[in-house]
What does this fold into?
Amino acid sequence: MKLAWKKNKKRPLATVSKYPNLPFDHKNDNPSNQNDTADGELNKEQHHEPLSAQNEPSVSEEEEEEADVTKLFNSFQSQGTKLAEDGKYREALGKWESALMLMPKSAVLHEQKAQVLIEIGDAWNAIKAAIRATELEPSWAEAWVTLGRAQLNFGEPDSAVQSFDKALAIKPDSEEARDDRHTAMNLMKRRKQLHSSGLSPTRNRYAVGDSTDRT
It folds into this structure.
């Protein structure tokens, strides 16, 4: 964060003796010497650095520091992305956590983190990461889709449908939002059927594609 520095008013310079190193006063000074001394003092004042400039921070140093932070953030992010593509999800999370320490308001990184957490089965933390992404970028449809998928994996199809609806309100032509919403609606219907048949969905869980036939 750049600090706002107040410029101090330039205060008058202290009176300088013409002979600062001598312990006695000089009388009957030579006028030519006085002129030379006055010219020297004038030159000193002309070359004196303004006090306000001394108090101002170096813009170039601040810019360099911001550039270094951005460069380090991008490095951590790209390393994490490469690890995630190679299936090294926990290592990827470690890199992204380091990147978020530098830029905690990166919606893209929170969304990527949520995707990886879904992959390793940590639906609860995936929900938290996806929620953060939607808070930072509420008009980003993909973040709402990721949140809906995390909610589905956590067993909350009702909440997932709401997230997919928000994604579709932002991006009506999103096929993944429509498909995932359809999946969530089917899960809701199935849960109602289990309730109506007297079965508890918490004690009778079925993975998608499992056969319900009994032998």
In short: DSSP finds nine helices and no strands in the chain.
